[in-house]
Amino acid sequence: VTIDRQSICDVMAFALDHSECAVDISSTIVRSFHVGDSRESKRVHRHVPAMAYVARLFVVSDILHNVGRMSYNAMRDKVLSVLHAWGQWSLFPPPYLIGLNATFLQKSREVEEDMDVVCAAMDADTLALNDERLKRKCRHAGLVAAGSKHDMYRRLYMLKKFTSVGDGRRQDEIDDEDGNVDGEPMEEDEDDIDGVPLDDDIDGVPLDGDDDVDGEPMDMADD
């Protein structure tokens, strides 16, 4: 393996595709770094270019990163599947399950919101709750009911943001969206909706003249 990007990707892909042989692959990678005590082993490693060890280190780093990401995604999908099944079976009230989803999917920055922002978003009734009632409110909403009042306020604020979008998407997923829902601008011009101007009469004949509606003049001689 070399430090070439494609070479490292090929080795990483091979390792992931043969994950059932993870023990053997790991042993092979470890041996590639290990310098034994024997004279033959030292002779072999003495002729290995330094960049080859760097390339192997890149391979180890990429494998660890991708395996960790795959494990995280698999775990997340399984947990969300369980929560979805609970909703289908009506085991818990919908608001409680929404709170569990929000708690599981929350980002670390969402529990570190500035308290001025959090308190400004809370209604007066929530801010007036004592500790016991606030904990009960969090439990009923599927949130962790522990810590200080500020901690629970932050969780309620996080839940409010999580449920602020009617179609179920998180607010930060649509912050960058702009324009019409289909992506086309709503700029209007003077034309009709079908693209034809409405400057003329509907039948195509102007009504500027003094003629009667039946086309015959109304000027008649006196009897």
UniProtKB/TrEMBL annotation:
Source species: Aphanomyces astaci
Protein name per Swiss-Prot or TrEMBL: CID domain-containing protein
GO MF term set: RNA binding
GO cellular component: nucleus
Biased composition annotated in UniProt, kind: Acidic residues: 173-223
Stretches for region Disordered: 168-223
Signal peptide (from-to): none
